[in-house]
Amino acid sequence: MVIQFSAPISTLCHTEVEETLSKQIWLAPILSNNRKRLIERSAEMLASDGADSFLYLAASRPLLDAVISGLLDGERNRGVWGTLPVFLFHGFARHVMATAVDDESGLPLPPRIPIDRDELPLKRSLISRVMLRLLREGKLKALGPLAHREGCVNTVARLIGEIQRAAKSPFEFASIVEARARDFNQDGEPASAIPRQIDFDREIGVIYTAYQESLDGSQLTEDDADQLRALDALRGELDGKRVRLPWLSEVKLLVLDGFFDFTPAQGEMLRLLIPSIPDVIVNLNRDERNAEIFRPFDATIDQLNSIAHFETKVESEILAVAGSLTPLRERLFNSGLVDDRAAAYSTKGAGATNITFLECSDRQTEIRAIVKRIKRLVHLEGYELSEIALVVRELASYTDVIARVFEEESVPCSLERRMRLADVPAARAALKLFELLMKLVREGDATLKASELASLVKSGYFRLPEVELAALRARFNQEDAHLWDAGGFRRGPSETNVGQWDPDELENVIAFVGAELRIENWLGRARKLTAQLRDPRVEEHLASDLEEESDSDEGSSTPVADETFSAVKRRSEWVEPVDIPDPSVVFSSCTTRTALPAVAIVLPPVFMRLYPDRWATFPWSALAADANAIAPMSYWTSATPAPRCAAGDQRYCAYQYTHDNVLLSRQYTGLPVHAIGGAGDAATVAQVGDYVRAARETAAAGGSFYDYLTTKPGFWPYLEQLKP
Questions:
Q1: What residue spans in the chain does CATH classification 3.40.50.300 cover?
Q2: What's the predicted TM-score (pTM) here?
Q3: Strand partners of residue 283
Q4: End-to-end Cα separation, the chain, in angstroms
Q5: Helix (H/G/I), strand (E/B), else coil: 221
Q6: Which partner for 592 in 59, 212, 349, 626 could form a disulfide, CB atoms 3.0-4.6 Å apart?
Q7: 35-94 per-position pLDDT tens digit
């Protein structure tokens, strides 16, 4: 019996007649309302019963995005606490492993480190090390001559992935190989100098076993291994322990949407999931006018029916399309079909049906032709940009080309690019603030270092309110105005940022005084540096005090109770502030062209262009005469370029910022250019890849990154490509 639901499924789930719940396969043309109905039903359950009441498995990333957008519409469902139960199969496997608990202790399973992500791409390296170890131990005879070849390692890595997706553990695979050897009686054959296929199969099993042992021993994992472990967790036993999924008993609806078929591992997981969930809906495509094209879905339907009895529900309702597009559905997969309507369509030509067919050699040519067509529609035919849509099969493979070509042709477009939440500058700044607050609660105020405060300041998202800045300006004019007359200060009041919030200047000051000092000691040193007495005896005493402060940061930061007369005198009116040089003056205190090369470290030219009043007279020619190389500080993660990049200005993102700074520095000086990169605590793997690509494309004389302690493991495969 096929059940038509007249009320939301969440209402039916709470009735006493659970037998009314069913398992259904929905078949409909591609342009049907089935998916909309599924999302609507899931949204109702999310609003009334919560996120634990359903499970939605999508076949592709674009479909996943569409489902999430439909569920979290901002009105009925603004968000969820915990996890929204919409996954790809890999994500579902990770969710299973993250939520499985030990049945005896009730504790979650220890997490594992993934080694197949961009942040830590170690899967191939681990397999390579395993193969080399087995080769040294004499366990690889057939594969021995190839074990050092990169192609062999890649092939073995892909083969192990296929075995994992076939839901076979190392033990099961080895058993299959031995059974195959017995079936063909190959063990009884005389030894041969040429390895047999069974020899290669056995060694693949040995590598697979050793690789799995390495993962287990170091608490590592990867996507395919996660699916195998998730399968064991669904079976109720993992690593010899009884495990359970607390949320599984709460799930009332399982949706499988957009799948063509299932891998063996996915099929085994469904074999365990489907019988345990009352209501299951599988959404598949079927068009009776192209029945032969959709015939492969019959195998998927048979597989599902082998798990449980499914009712098949055929839907013929389709979304309306323009008249000229009507023949496309019928002829889309059957170009040999000819009838009066198709003949009329083909004879009238593209102009009559408003359909133009373009065949291009590459994506860039294709997108550029489309852009020119868009321009004609807007300028000559009166279209609005909001009336034009560009649809591609895989947005991920087109995104960069679309963004670049549309920008070059000055055509605005809206691309819903995906990025990790931690890569959003505002979210990253908030995370830093939360980490700092948790540290203060955990360790106390005395442990706070100036560098931690600087990381918040340079994010550009935290600043003092204007009322406090006004109070500081008034205090400076009242108490410290005499600093303007200090010798060596070469900039006038109109050119300073006194009383203004400037993250870059604040970061420089924090670093100059001592970024690794605790806040209390940093403040003390800052006061001494801006109030040095000209009395040599006091200066000597000051130097010794500074050394003592550096040592004290290794221990207690408790201030000394008794303040000496010398310390009081340091706050007198006799000051000797830090010399701030005029940017138009070049100091040639060292002899250039000596045995040791001189590298001029400068602000990036792109940054200087933002402030022409200050930097228009920068002496590039003098630097070219006195230096051997130039090193622009292209910190794309700093407070000036980062917000501009986040706002969509590509000139200030990692690739273009590095690219332009290298070329401009070389153009202004004619010297080799060393590209100084971003900061490790604020950069992403994608940004580092763009930075390295720009440095290599512009033939930069190597590059550097700040700093070693904050450089993530995922950065090194890119940074090691930088060579002088």
A1: 9-85+251-314
A2: 0.57
A3: 26, 257
A4: 73
A5: strand
A6: 626
A7: 999 999 999 999 998 899 999 999 988 889 889 989 998 888 888 887 899 999 999 999
